[in-house]
Structure formats: structure tokens, C-alpha cells
Design a protein that fits this description.
mainly alpha; three-stranded mixed β-sheet; 6 helices; 3 strands
């Protein structure tokens, strides 16, 4: 696996971004060190970038439109959950009370109970397999075969 993570830049972010203190600038995750933010939201935005093909990832800027953003919302959530579990983070760091339009805690509970909304997007991108369909020894969600869409 030769995957290069999206770069991160620390600089001021203008108010009014979809996630406070965080934005995207030509495929770079921009974080305002002085801005308000929820640390778990970084994984969510990284999930959006991860689901984009490389040619689109390098152009992703600001609020992602329907083609890039809202169409992959559940996939970005699912990707961020896999990342959180991989990093041994409490799921409530990513799916906090103020995230997902106030539904973060409910979505976290859904994942903890074995429901994986957004998993088909990760499967279609070739990033993982559904637990029931993986062959022996093959990575199955929440394990990832790859972290970035090719």
C-alpha cells in the first residue's frame, strides 16, 4: 500500500466554514490552531477527502458541493468511525453531541450496536469489505484494506 495522507496546514480559517476552524484548500486540510473546533471533526473532513478520487481530491476546496460532499456524507462518517476505532479513540470524539446536525450520539450508538451506515460507499470505493462478506484473513470493516480511494 503506497498511500500518501492528505497534507495538513495550520493557519487562520475564515468564519462560516461547514465545520468551525476547519476547511479544505485544494486537497489540503486546513486547521485554525486558534479557532474553535471539535478535534474529531478533523477525521470527518479527512473521510471526505479519502473518498474522493485523487484527481478530485487535489481540487477539493471549501464546502464540498453535492457531487463531492453531501453525496458522501454517510461514507465520510463511516470512514471517520473506522479511523477512530483504528486509533483507539472514543467514538464520541468523532460523533459528538454537536456533530452530524445534533445526531452524533445516536449515530455513534448505531455503530456500537453493529449498524454501519455509509459502509456501502467504502465498499464501492474498494476500501473495505462488509464483515459478513469478507473471506478468512481479509480485512473487514472496521478494518480497512486501504484508507484512500484510488
Amino acid at each position: 500500500m503506497n498511500e500518501t495522507p492528505a497534507p495538513v496546514d495550520r493557519r487562520a480559517v475564515e468564519p462560516g466554514t461547514p465545520l468551525a476552524g476547519i476547511t479544505l484548500d485544494r486537497g489540503v486540510l486546513v486547521v485554525d490552531p486558534a479557532g474553535p473546533m471539535y478535534p474529531g471533526d478533523l477525521l470527518h473532513e479527512a473521510g471526505h477527502l479519502a473518498l474522493l478520487p485523487p484527481r478530485d481530491r487535489v481540487r477539493a476546496t471549501g464546502r464540498l458541493d453535492d457531487r463531492w460532499g453531501t453525496a458522501t456524507e454517510s461514507g465520510a462518517i463511516c470512514w471517520s468511525v473506522a479511523a477512530a476505532w483504528h486509533l483507539h479513540l472514543d467514538l464520541r470524539v468523532v460523533l459528538h453531541d454537536h456533530g452530524c446536525h445534533g445526531a452524533g450520539a445516536r449515530i455513534a450508538t448505531t455503530f456500537e450496536l453493529g449498524g454501519f451506515p455509509g459502509l456501502p460507499l467504502l465498499v464501492d470505493a474498494g476500501l473495505t469489505k462488509p464483515p459478513a462478506e469478507a473471506a478468512a484473513g481479509e480485512p473487514a470493516f472496521p478494518a480497512m484494506a486501504r484508507w484512500l480511494c484510488e
